[in-house]
Amino acid sequence: MNPAKILLVFLCLFLLPAMAFSKEQNSLRLISYNTWGLPSPILVCPGRFKKIAKEIGQFNADIVAFEETFTKYADVLGKIPEFPYRLYGPAKGGKKLKILNSGLLLLSKYPIVESDYKIYSKCGGFDCFANKAIIWAKIKVPGIGAINVFTTHTNAGTSRKIKESQLVEAGDFIEAHLGGRSTVFMGDFNFAPGSELYNYVKYNLNFEDTLDLYLTDHPEYSNDPNVLYTYIIKLIYKRRLDYFWLKDIGPRSMHPTDYKVIFNNINGKKLSDHFGILMDLQFH
User: Fold this and answer.
1) What string of DSSP letters covers 232-267?
2) CATH match of 25-283 with 3.60.10.10
3) Quick check: helix, strand or coil at residue 203?
4) What backbone phi and psi angles, to 5 degrees, belong to 47?
5) What pTM was estimated for this model as a whole?
6) Is-contact 153 132, C-beta < 8 A?
7) pLDDT tens, position by position, 190-217
């Protein structure tokens, strides 16, 4: 064997694997999306879920949280090949004989090494048919280490007391699972920025709003409706109901480097009554 071939074999066997192993990941891309996956007979356009699954794969996300995956047509979302690790929220049934599950589904490219959930004790209206809950995943990310990801979908409707009760229980649940790790809390919270419920998460639970952090660095987007709103009805009723919240307590600090609303126009159509949100997190 000539010297050039010997050198090539040496690189393949020793140096290249070592280089690949030592490559450290410093960022994460996360998506949260309420898919409007209501059960029959109120389900709209069941073919949407195959399109959602296809589009999600094109965003190159690391972690995805879905809400309202009640319908069987949403099962395709748990089979997206880019995400080998999956965590479902609590199933239907239980002491109160809920006829729907939690609608929560968390997907990850990286191992989910621990998980848990908490079913909320109070609910209101049609949401009482579902096992409304918060779920937790401890995810081990190469180069970053273990992080916490929590996702929830709080009660719809106008009852502030029910939502507040759920957020209090969520806060206790989060506190019990922090473990000194960087923490992301995301999902559909069904409250507007600046509301009492928003301020409860921000000040009582001590989370930072990712969009606030991003707009501090990028004020040019402060009036952009494509960033500010995740729920729009006929361009009249505009709200931000979906959030990424951060608790930066891990050994490495984290900061959002990108934030955008997605699924607001797929070939001229919306695939849900909500838009999705995407966040890039940089770890230092």
Assistant:
1) EETTTEEE--EEEEEE--SSS-EEEEEEEEESS-BT
2) yes
3) helix
4) -70, -10
5) 0.90
6) yes
7) 999 999 999 999 999 999 999 999 999 9
